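Subject: mismatched residue count in predicted assembly?

I count 416 residues in my input, but I want to confirm that the predicted structure covers every chain. Input:
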Amino acid sequence: MAKRIADSTVRRLSAYLRFLEDFESRGLETISSEELAQRGGTTSAQVRKDLSFFGSFGKRGLGYSVPELAGRLREILGLGKEWKVIIIGAGKIGAALAQYRGFRQRGFLILAAYDANEEKIGRKLEGIPVRDITQLERDVRQDRPDIAVLTVPAEEAQRVLDRVVKTGIKAILNFAPTQLQAPADVTVKTVNMAMELEGLSYALTNRD
Amino acid sequence: MAKRIADSTVRRLSAYLRFLEDFESRGLETISSEELAQRGGTTSAQVRKDLSFFGSFGKRGLGYSVPELAGRLREILGLGKEWKVIIIGAGKIGAALAQYRGFRQRGFLILAAYDANEEKIGRKLEGIPVRDITQLERDVRQDRPDIAVLTVPAEEAQRVLDRVVKTGIKAILNFAPTQLQAPADVTVKTVNMAMELEGLSYALTNRD
DNA sequence: ACATGTGAACTGCTTCACAGCG
DNA sequence: CGCTGTGAAGCAGTTCACATGT
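Triage response: the counts match. Full output below for your records.
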């Protein structure tokens, strides 16, 4: 791939794909950058620029073929293959994630959840087996998950992350409200509710 | 307030506060921009620039007073007062949020959850009453919540948002994986898991 | 005629580098 | 001397505007 693509661009591609799927299901054949822009809260120039990083798959004077563009975006985003996911921490957030249908819909297969709590081990979390955290390393060697989702308390998050990184997993989705340190070849995305709330608090406080 | 502050800046302030609280609890008195930067994965110049938007509360040659800076950040972020929150959608994500202690810790008080499902109405969700969504407008008029958290399915999200906006609530935290349209004076923060996952998928696919 | 694709201009965030002050 | 505070420089992402292709 030629250039390094900005994070914000990837997020928008993800948004475009969502609209395209909506269009696809309604049987529409073509869409313009302008239509895509309006739905995504951005501009047509931005849409075209975003897509131009990966090639030129529109027809001048016409727009983009909905199924073709959707297919190309899935390809770019790596949604062609099935990604295997493990959840670490079988608490409430873990449970909410385990039942989230968005995972499946987009080709993410949850293999198992892990916890240290003996009462939870051996049970099922929304149909997903809860395993003993002590067998993490053994399981990873066998199942080769691609992504680990961390839903453990903030105090344990860094320790658990280090352990996960050591198993060779390269992608982590972190729900602990803490900044994590990881090697450069490991991608960590953090969903920090506390931060979002404080952003709202700031917005409410500093209004004109 | 003089300038418009970037979203990224506010997020970092939020992160700084978290480290400061850690330092505070360990009884440390001063901290340098360099120490703050290392914990937050940024640079000392960035830290100083971020803080400089709001005044100059460091001591040259020494650093910042931990309790003083923490206090100022709480003030800037609007964490001095108690914000009242309602949750709309009493599903799994709603439940996970209802029990999340981070809310309380930072002065966010959850008043109630709302749902249309009769089986849920009247029950408690982690100690929080689940009320009938039809009484939303009446309740908002009386309780005056500041923030609404949306944990409803994507298809309903825009409709529910419109309804919430009409009640006069100006801050919304959205968990539905969809782009929402709101008036300019309403702040909407979206936590989109699907987008984060696709970001990871992209990272895994396009590695050197 | 119409909508794409893209170099060029612009905007704004980040980094640099150093003067200023304790 | 050490670390802050901040203009200036640098850089990245966004917007503009138009040539290009259908």
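The two ends of chain B are 45 Å apart (CA to CA). Marking this ticket as 'not a bug'.
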